[in-house]
């Protein structure tokens, strides 16, 4: 089963590049930028990565991202993630980045996007991995600040596929960002949003009806009959992140993860790593631990991998090409 998962061609649709920042690289970049970090060893870092809720994690995640200063830092961060994709048979990835985490510290938008997008281009050349970027607005900040970020992104519009909404969910409903999403859609960005991770079903309704999202990130709290019906009707996928849900106590353990129930109700689900450096595993580890906990069959894993391409923002022809690879792999394994 593990071999099957590792070799299965797949796409990752929910990944924060700042959350892929492995401690070893964080130490190296801190050192070259002459920045002191709180921890003296990798063991100490790992000890600190124990969370009770989303906010617990976010505090540490934003602190970690604070050592990223130059274009080369953003390049190295992204390159390290894309190298891991090559090893994990991730053929396509849609990477979220949080510009405000950096621009608020005085780093130019251009520095961030240039480093990230150059690494993506290099990975396509070296590994054949395709990628899109999702610019995510931080929901704990104001809509006015999100508008400023939208403005800053415009010279780089050709490098960005979608806009997202992340950070502290409770108390920051999607409706807070109605206007900036409307403006973002007018600029040609595809809308997605985190909803129903810690927040209620009402936030998922808002993401659908007010932000007009084309995917829901997480969506764990979708269990209301009419909401499920609506998501199914719109043919929208949930980007599920099992190890993140376990680490942030969205679920008690993976055995009680609702993913199987979601599938039974007709929802389209994909498996993703969210912030792999913080939650104990890359995408394959997410598939492996979920398979073990819920006794998923090869057929179910095959469906999940197919969904990952089907609900990507790739054009139909490229989707078909990738899906035929998944079908061919499944028929031989
Ligand atoms: N930013 C990075 N990871 C996140 C998550 N799981 N939820 C909300 N914001 C995030
Ligand atoms: Zn996320």
User: What is the CATH topology classification name?
Assistant: TIM Barrel
Count of discrete alpha- or pi-helical segments spanning 4 or more residues:
17
Cofactors, ions, other ligands: adenine, zinc ion
What is the percentage of strand-forming residues?
Answer: 5-15%
Order of strands across the main sheet: 1-2-3-4-5
The stretches of 5 or more residues where confidence is low (pLDDT under 50) are none
User: Termini, distance in Å?
Assistant: 10 Å
Give me the CATH superfamily. Metal-dependent hydrolases
The biggest sheet amounts to:
5 strands, parallel
Which whole number gives the mean pLDDT? 97
Level of helix content?
A: 40-55%
Q: Which H/E pattern describes the elements? A: HEHHHHEHHEHEHEEHEHEHHEHHHH
Output the radius of gyration.
Answer: 19 Å
The total of beta strands comes to: 9
**CATH C-level class:** Alpha Beta
Structural class assignment: alpha/beta
Shape: globular
CATH architecture assignment: Alpha-Beta Barrel
Count of discrete domains: 1
